[in-house]
Design goal:
Layout (H helix, E strand, L loop, with lengths): L1 H33 L2 H6 L3 H15 L5 H23 L4 H12 L3 H14 L3 E7 L2 E7 L2 E6 L7 E2 L1 H14 L3 E6 L2 E2 L1 H9 L3 E4 H11 L13
């Protein structure tokens, strides 16, 4: 028994070295996966994957039947479809800018009515507050959020309106808060919102939310006709 215990102890350093090596290899493989061909293609224009699929087909059919050559292109065609879907979701910046300008031209009554309808269309029960930093109390899934909308016309929002809305959320014991802006937000405001887990409803997301509430299609993607 003592001899067996000694043998196990002698093997302990080797086992530790083996485990460390395996962990290092695993981490390197994880890093490589982020830089793999398919990961790069998923972030590239969709047509690049189609070109590679065509090249693979032409190469493989020199040595194998057409069916096998076609099968070899399926991963690339799948990536092309995925990349194309992702890129089709990117809104057209010019259309978004025009819609935001139209929102800033609305009166408060028009804009608040549009936002209330949009929140209801998105599944919220809405209570108008009308005072302080928050304009609506939103109820959904057992959670309560305060939404601040009245400064939607401001050309650029800083940190102060977000801080006021956050204080109102804490005072009302709500779980979330949403800040609505048709103008720009400063980098400090975006950082403040991220640090305090505040939702910023602006830019393309705001335009698409209002479009859905009016039964319109989402803002077209870049490169698509309006």
């Amino acid at each position: 028994m003592q001899k067996y215990g000694a043998m196990r102890c002698n093997r302990c350093p080797e086992s530790s070295i083996l485990r460390a090596s395996l962990l290092r290899v695993h981490s390197e493989m994880g890093l490589f996966s982020k830089r793999s061909l398919f990961a790069v293609l998923s972030r590239s224009p969709w047509w690049l994957s189609v070109l590679l699929a065509t090249a693979v087909f032409m190469l493989v059919r020199q040595f194998m039947p057409d069916a096998a050559a076609l099968a070899s292109t399926l991963p690339f065609l799948g990536i092309a479809g995925y990349a194309g879907w992702r890129q089709s979701r990117v809104p057209d910046p010019e259309r978004v800018a025009a819609e935001l300008a139209a929102l800033r031209a609305m009166s408060w009554q028009e804009f608040s009515a549009a936002m209330e309808a949009a929140f209801r269309r998105d599944g919220y029960a809405v209570d108008a507050i009308g005072k302080g930093a928050a304009d609506f109390k939103l109820h959904k899934g057992g959670r309560v959020a305060l939404a601040g909308c009245k400064r939607w016309k401001v050309a650029q929002t800083g940190v102060e309106p977000l801080r006021e809305l956050l204080l109102a959320k804490d005072a009302a014991e709500a779980q979330d808060c949403v800040y609505v802006a048709a103008g720009e937000l400063s980098q400090n405001a975006r950082q403040f919102a991220a640090e305090n887990k505040m939702r910023l409803l602006c830019e393309a997301e705001l335009v698409q939310l209002l479009a859905r509430s009016k039964g319109q299609k989402d803002v077209p993607a870049a490169g698509h006709a309006p």
